[in-house]
Specification:
Helix content is 9%, strand content 34%. The protein folds into 4 domains: 330 residues, Collagenase (Catalytic Domain) (3-Layer(aba) Sandwich), CATH 3.40.390.10; 92 residues, no CATH class; 93 residues, Immunoglobulin-like; 121 residues, Sandwich (Jelly Rolls), CATH 2.60.120. The strands form 9 sheets. It has a 7-stranded mixed β-sheet, sandwiched between helices. Strands 21-27-26-23-24 form a 5-stranded mixed β-sheet, with no helix packed on it. Strands 5-4-9-10 form a 4-stranded antiparallel β-sheet. It is mainly β.
């Protein structure tokens, strides 16, 4: 047994420009970063802990979001439900994570005659299993984990005191993974981790003297990796980070050939290819355990999962990991993350594996793997991945919009007329029949050396926006959060206001579709907008943004590619408008008898209008009033919104209250300009409440 050296992660962010110039706020969010191992019995054990400061806030998932994740294809993986409970036992944070189950070795076979290479595929149950949990730091918090296997059977539950884990982190299996020379210098940091996929390229088998080589190798890798569609179009949606662990010796282990070798034995290799490996019998002292011939497949290059995750704590906001091994022998693997060697042909393997780990795509080749979890779009209980199906009814095929009317369903294989179009081709997901794929021979999930095709490419884009791969939990937003100017909210102005946002769209276009609306009417398609109004009143300004990429079929996009922001601008009377005081007067009070200015009590979600012209001395020519709004006897928490009649409901309220509270707030309120002086009141509560408006003056 070799003793692994102390992990010394060195953060090398690609490029030259400082990350601080990106224009996004760099607030930090305290969190626990915990690595767990999972043994063959399903028992969970913490092996590494670090307190970290995240750049992307951890957002607790709603029950609706959790249900959506439960209904998504499992892609052969298990799942992990995560909860954090406070000292009183209340759940304060929830998340759901994939729990990788398989190690994949998918290598170049023979040429397929259409410009690609068949996949020599191997799938094994993952024995070295580990996972990372990132949760907010709270005092006296308890972490609850519940794991299910790839067949959606609940296997193990465990609970841990977060304070205890932090207190004994030095006693865990991996006590140290200190960071050295962290440098924020990155043109490849394209935006805030709170609105990006964060991809770490983690090196293994690089010595301290080879740090520059790692940076060169990783920079070349990421440039090539993102060189195909759709990765290239959405490269700016991904932060790319190089993370180095210093090894005492360079390279990976090459076990000696032994035809009697059995199972996954680190001491030998039963694959005949090892007999001609010039490095056979070579063992090195590297940081992450990179070794060839896992499961007796010489080209299956793997690393030890737990040390990888511990090293990745140097950049705790990571969402995906690629491990680059400093060895020119052809090899790689997929599973929890992708592993590849420096051999040029390993790049295609890494792209394919990223299709599994990030995009959650299925393999489209039909080599049999008995025992692999089944799927069905017919039963719906365990749906298939986006690129395969057992559905043969044309109208019900999930990628039917991509299939041309002239293309027969099922679609014949080997016919040049259908070589590069979507159809329904039999064979896929390790089955020769009963399962269908979307392309014949022109998808990277079927053959290496080709592109992704329409359905697989579309799913990558949808997954970017849909989320479920880390933070942001809801996916990337084409309107950059935090770069709205001014921030969404309610503002008072004399004549209007100007608005601008930061936008994130695909490289090379098409440009995002932007539509500005005022009170529901479209007014501009420019990236920014200036509202100019001379008439006092409330104006709701809304920006609607949509990615109209042709890489997602328009009929399949739904609202996943959409985003919006809203502002309310109260245009106040101009300075030359006179203000007139009145003796403090009650304009309406719902506690009184039923009537136009009285009861009944406001029901849940009620919207009522009150005509104030002629009330309390307010003339029909009044433009705005000044007064005091009070809530009384609310039975549930909620809010009251008060706004000019005829205007849309504003996104902000005048009063926010708890059950049983009596609260008041001053307000200057524009009136409907039709002589009625109408104001509208909305009760935003699930219970009942009373509202009272007292007027002290008006503008005219």
């Amino acid at each position: 047994m070799r003793v692994r050296p102390l992990l010394l992660p060195l953060l090398l962010l690609l490029g030259l420009s400082g990350a601080a110039s990106a224009g996004w706020a760099q607030e930090r969010f305290p969190a626990h970063y915990i690595v767990f191992s999972l043994d063959e019995n399903g028992d969970v054990k913490p092996v590494f802990h670090r307190p970290v400061l995240l750049l992307a806030p951890l957002v607790s998932r709603s029950e609706e979001d959790l249900e959506r994740l439960r209904s998504e294809p499992a892609a052969g993986d298990g799942s992990l439900d995560v909860e954090v409970l406070d000292a009183g036992g209340e759940v304060v944070f929830r998340d759901r994570l994939p729990l990788p189950t398989w190690v994949r070795g998918e290598f170049h076979g023979g040429p397929n005659g259409q410009g690609g290479w068949s996949i020599d595929g191997h799938v094994f149950p993952q024995q070295d299993r580990a996972f990372v949990v990132r949760v907010p730091r709270i005092v006296d918090g308890t972490l609850s984990l519940s794991a299910a296997d790839a067949w959606r059977r609940r296997t193990r539950s465990a609970s841990f005191s977060l304070d205890d884990l932090a207190a004994r982190q030095d006693l865990l299996e991996i006590p140290e993974a200190p960071v050295a020379n962290v440098q924020w210098a990155a043109s490849a940091i394209t935006g805030s981790p709170a609105n990006r996929v964060d991809l770490v390229i983690l090196g293994d088998g690089y010595t301290a003297a080879q740090a520059a080589q790692l940076q060169t190798d990783a920079t070349n890798l990421e440039a090539s990796f993102f060189g195909i569609t759709p990765y290239s179009s959405y490269k700016n949606y991904v932060n790319r980070v190089i993370l180095s662990t210093v090894s005492a010796q360079s390279g990976a282990d090459h076990p000696p050939y032994n035809p009697s070798c059995f199972g996954d034995d680190r001491s030998c290799c039963g694959d005949i290819t090892a007999a001609s490996d010039p490095l056979a019998g070579t063992y090195v002292n590297n940081a992450l355990g990179a070794r060839f011939c896992a499961f007796n497949i010489h080209r299956l290059l793997v690393v030890d999962s737990a040390p990888v995750y511990a090293a990745a704590a140097a950049y705790p906001d990571w969402d995906q990991i690629l491990v680059l091994v400093n060895d020119t022998t052809y090899g790689g693997a997929g599973g929890s993350f992708s592993v590849l060697s420096r051999h040029s042909a390993a790049l295609d393997v890494a792209r394919h594996e990223y299709g599994h780990t990030f995009t959650r795509l299925a393999d489209e080749y039909d080599s049999a793997y008995p025992g692999y979890p089944s799927c069905s779009d017919l039963s719906g209980s365990s749906p298939c991945e986006a690129n395969v199906t057992d559905q043969t009814t044309r109208a019900s095929i999930k990628w039917a919009p991509w299939i041309a009317a002239a293309t027969p369903v099922p679609t014949p294989e080997g016919n040049p007329s259908y070589a590069n179009v979507a159809g329904l081709f039999q064979g896929g997901r390790y089955l020769t029949s009963g399962m269908y794929r979307h392309r014949d021979a022109s998808c990277l999930m079927h053959f290496l050396g080709v592109g992704f095709g329409d359905v697989c490419g579309q799913e990558y884009v949808l997954r970017l926006y849909r989320g479920g791969w880390g933070q942001p939990s809801a996916g990337v937003d084409p309107i950059e959060p935090g770069l709205e100017n001014p921030p969404p909210g309610t503002y008072t102005a004399l004549t209007g206001a100007s608005f601008s946002v930061g936008l994130l769209g695909p490289l090379g276009g098409p440009a995002l579709q932007t539509t500005w609306k005022v009170n529901g009417t479209a007014v501009s398609t420019s990236p920014s907008y200036v509202l100019l109004r001379s008439t006092p009143g409330a104006y709701q300004v809304t920006l609607e943004v949509k990615d109209v990429t042709p890489q997602v079929h328009a009929t399949m996009a739904g609202t996943v590619l959409d985003s919006s922001r809203s502002w309310t601008v109260n245009v106040a009377p101009s300075p030359d408008t006179a203000f007139y005081t009145v003796t403090p007067c009650r304009a309406f009070d719902t506690r009184t008898a039923n009537g136009p200015l009285g009861g009944p009590v406001l029901a849940a979600g009620a919207i009522r209008s009150f005509n104030l012209a002629g009330v309390c001395g307010i003339p029909t020519t009044a433009r705005a009033i000044v007064g005091n709004l009070t809530v009384a006897q609310p039975t549930q928490a909620g809010y009251l919104a008060l706004y000019a009649g005829g205007s849309p409901v504003p996104p902000t309220s005048v009063i926010t209250f708890a059950a049983g509270q009596v609260l008041a707030n001053n307000t200057t309120l524009a009136l409907q300009q039709n002589g009625s002086g109408t104001v509208t009141l909305k009760s935003g509560t699930s219970g009942t409440a009373h509202a009272i408006l007292d007027v002290t003056g008006y503008y005219q």
